[in-house]
Amino acid sequence: MNDLSTTPGPSIELGCGDAPVLRERGQREVFCGLTGIIWLHRKIQDAFFLVVGSRTCAHLIQSAAGVMIFAEPRFATAIIGERDLAGLADANDELDKVVNKLLARRPDIKLLFLVGSCPSEVIKLDLSRAAQRLSKDHSPDVRVLSYSGSGIETTFTQGEDACLASLVPELPALPDGERSLMVVGALADVVEDQFRRMFSELGIDSVHFLPPQSADTMPPVGPGTSYLLAQPFLADTARALEGRGATRLPAPFPLGVEGTTAWLKAAADAWGVSETKFEDVTSRPRARAAAALDRYRETLAERRVFFFPDSQLEVPIARFLNRELGMELVEVGTPYLHKQHMADELALLPADTMLSEGQHVENQLDRCREASPDLVVCGLGLANPLESEGMTTKWAIELVFSPIHGYEQAADLAELFARPMVRRTRLAV
User: Helices marked H in 156-255 — which ranges?
Assistant: First the structure.
């Protein structure tokens, strides 16, 4: 594909796409899908996320988001009270009152998401029907959509998947005969700007991003749409896009030098960009990123890393750590393993990689303790207990909140894993 000789990797047989997968079912430790609101509300500037849930839901969102000092946040919680749970009040009437009050106070809202939770599902509140009713009442000024952020049988990044999937039916149709590229998955604005610039330099000008930065710039979709997944946890969104005629461009995810190059190359090949043109556009940022990784290789090379399932980012991150920084993979756990979307990633992992899907936290803790890895990537709930046992941990959720995609962020991604190793060394002294 390209000359990636600047990217070292272990000389080991590659490809674990056909390797057996340990499927775990048991006690789980993960945030719920409501957490996705924390990054989504910053992305779509004129959208608002109204969680229909309990006070616990409200505390979760407020704690995860931190304190907003200079501006009102674009999320809130409509509290389901005891009267709603007891059936003494009509939950739909109560919801209509909250929405009407919210929109009167915030006329800047153009897109309102009603976000379901465990409590709203327990009382069988039909938010999709409520969204249709409210959207009709407030049209054309505000569109109202719904999706579930419930923590029942989901992991936290699925909140973004459910949100974007709810947008797909609302996307305008791409005119017949036109062609466009859609990048799917929430990215930091700086990363989106970098990718947009690189696509433009490659001669790919009709590029759209989902989610968009505003409700009135929804990307068109149709049979002429080719899409690249920027995030690995968007199975429902991908299915919805393909239902409208879009075609996925298979590629690794744009994490690290190798992943970013292959991801860009998938679009370049689809648009008939020449090898010479592609090399001219990518060679300098690729070399810069590879050089920036050198400082972290000494800290991370030959260190052993264990991934607990958390965000579905585990497989592409493991590929990056193994091939570009020389880390040894003890176990790569992920909540769900979408083999079709992960095929290009799995083909780059060592053939003997231990993959696990789902979670049985007690079994995984036993395996982790027995392996005694140099670094454990896990959720917040496991990090402190494992640190108290003498292990070095990395919070998995930080990988979702941080800009880590693309060439310019490759070194930042490496630093996220080097930092806890350096901290442990300093504490030991």
Answer: 158-167, 189-201, 235-243
Structure tokens at 290: 């590879």
pLDDT at residue 354 is higher than 80: yes
Residue 226 or 84, more confident:
226
- The answer to whether 13 and 347 are in contact (CB under 8 A) is no
In which residue are the tokens 């036993």 written? Answer: 366
d(CA 207, CA 196): 7
Please report where in the chains the tokens 């991370």 appear, as a residue.
Answer: 300
* Whether residue 338 is found in the same domain as residue 236: no
Residue 74 CB-density burial (10 A; 0-12 exposed, 13-18 middle, 19+ buried): buried
Is residue 357 classed as helix, strand or coil in its secondary structure?
strand
* Domain CATH code at residue 337: 3.40.50.1980
Of 212, 242, 275, the last residue of a domain is: 275
Element (H, E) at 316: helix 314-325
**11, amino acid identity:** S
Q: Give residue-wise pLDDT tens across range 136-162.
A: 999 999 999 999 998 776 688 999 999
* DSSP code for 405: B
pLDDT (tens digit, 9 = 90+) per residue, 176-185? Answer: 999 999 999 9
Token reading at 96: 């209509």
- Pairing mode, if any, of strands 328-334 and 225-229? unpaired
- What band does 81 get if pLDDT is binned at 50, 70 and 90? low
- The total domain count for the chain is 3
Range of the domain at 217: 180-275
Same domain, 195 and 237: yes
Residue 172 lies in a domain: no
- Give the count of beta carbons closer than 10 Å to the beta carbon of residue 41: 18
Q: Tokens in use for 252?
A: 């690794």
Within-domain flag for 166: no
